[in-house]
Each structure stands twice: as structure tokens, then as C-alpha cells.
Amino acid sequence: xxxxxxxxxxxxxxxxxxxxxxxxxxxxxxxxxxxxxxxxxxxxxxxxxxxxxxxxxxxxxxxxxxxxxxxxxxxxxxxxxxxxxxxxxxxxxxxxxxxxxxxxxxxxxxxxxxxxxxxxxxxxxxxxxxxxxxxxxxxxxxxxxxxxxxxxxxxxxxxx
Length: 160
Known about the structure:
By secondary structure, this protein is α+β, with helices and mostly antiparallel strands. It has four helices and five strands, in the order ααβαββαββ. The longest helix has 10 residues, at 31-40.
């Protein structure tokens, strides 16, 4: 009797992996020593698989565009967004901050924001030993406007 999953198994056997491989070929004894070797150029790491186009990664927040309406806080199912009152304790000038350690990446805050000041990025490397570290708290990512293109670099003149 043929296995009903045989076709799926064969298909997955010959398809490309969708996971990120370990950064180095073999598991090192010390990851700190390995990263030191990478930064000094003695070792190379495996580049990560690029995130898909509509991947829900780390949140980007444009603090200047935010009007402090708190709609994102109301729709967040994980209570991952905290209100920061304005300078004088009033609603005017109030902002929010995002705790990525609590976020479920549901994108409800992005949909609810009337000023489009919240976006999901393709960044997925957020591992940290401390869930309250500054790397996992988003207060301001800057403007979403396209950055100015750098001027074309001229090659350096040959030296004799």
C-alpha cells in the first residue's frame, strides 16, 4: 500500500530549504570566539536567507509622524505598546514605545494607525538574553521617507 504522503515527501526532498542555516559550518566551542574571528576576517559566516517581501518582522516607528491617538494601543492583543505622555503630561505630544519581546507580529497596530507611522520590517534577528534590553524596545526608527541617494563615488586615482 502506498503512503498518501509520499508525493509530499518527495516534493520537499528536492525543494530548497526555507530556514536559515547555522552561521558557521560546524558548531563552535565558543560563539564569542567565532564572532571575534569573523570580525577580524579569519572566518566567514553563512549569509542568512532573505526575508520574504511581506514578512512581519521588527516594528519600525516614525515618532515625528505619530499624533498620539493611541489607536495602536487599543488594538494590540499582546499589550506590547506603552503610552508615553507628552512633555507636560497632556495628550498633545504623547508618543508610544513597542516591546518586541511581547509582540505577536499580528500587524494590527500597522492597520489601525491613521498616520501610517508604524511599519513591519524584514528584520528577524532579535534574539537577546534580556527581554527588556534596549535592542527589543522600539522608541523611534526615524522617518520612512526614502533616503537621499549617495553621490557616485569616484575611483581613487592610481598612486605611483
